[in-house]
Write a structure and sequence with these properties.
Elements: H1 3-59, H2 66-81, H3 84-106, H4 110-113, H5 116-151, H6 155-161, H7 174-177
Helix pairs in contact: 1-2, 1-3, 1-5, 2-3
């Protein structure tokens, strides 16, 4: 084979290796973002399971707050039914708001604050909220890496041909971005 033939063969091999590496990188990033979403899903499921237990424990003591309890359960049901990052982020924001109101109201009930079951459920819910926060961050980082690979050159050449699409971020709704007001008496 002549020198020109070796050069052409070398270029073809380099292009094939590049195509394979780019494709495999896209697959890896897509799988990582799907795994990250699954981790959020696991934590949200844990949260969804804890909330009815908390409501059940405080229901009798908070007889005057039945509307708040109903709101929490309805928000939880909407969150359980949500699918995908866009729907889930809106539903979970509403659930966070309703749960936050419930926890604030619980502060007005000394018997609840002294109840070990309530305190344990509150602690588990707080821990779960922290895990959800970390899982959201990891998911959004994974989606960003996928989106960068799909949208930037030369990865976009491979991504378009093989059906790779950008991922959806788990956004924080505008209602959660507001700075909380602290009022001291």
């Amino acid at each position: 084979m002549s020198t020109g033939g070796w050069i052409v063969l070398g270029v073809i091999v380099a292009v094939v290796v590049w195509l394979i590496a780019t494709y495999n990188g896209l697959v890896s990033r897509r799988n990582q973002s799907q795994n990250a979403w699954s981790q959020i899903d696991v934590q949200l499921k844990r949260r969804h399971d804890l909330i009815p237990n908390l409501v059940q424990v405080v229901k009798d003591a908070m007889s005057y707050e039945q509307e708040t309890l109903k709101t929490v359960i309805e928000a939880r049901n909407r969150a359980v039914a949500a699918t995908g990052p866009a729907q889930a982020s809106v539903a979970e924001a509403a659930l966070s708001e309703a749960t936050g109101k419930l926890l604030m109201l619980m502060e007005n009930y000394p018997t609840l604050k002294a109840n070990d079951n309530v305190m344990q459920l509150q602690e588990e819910l707080t821990t779960t909220e922290n895990k959800i926060s970390f899982a959201r961050q990891f998911y959004n980082d994974s989606v960003m890496a996928l989106n960068n690979a799909v949208q930037s050159f030369p990865g976009n050449l491979i991504a378009g041909r093989f059906g790779f699409t950008i991922g959806q971020f788990f956004d924080v709704p505008e209602t959660e971005k507001a700075v909380p007001q602290v009022k001291l008496r």
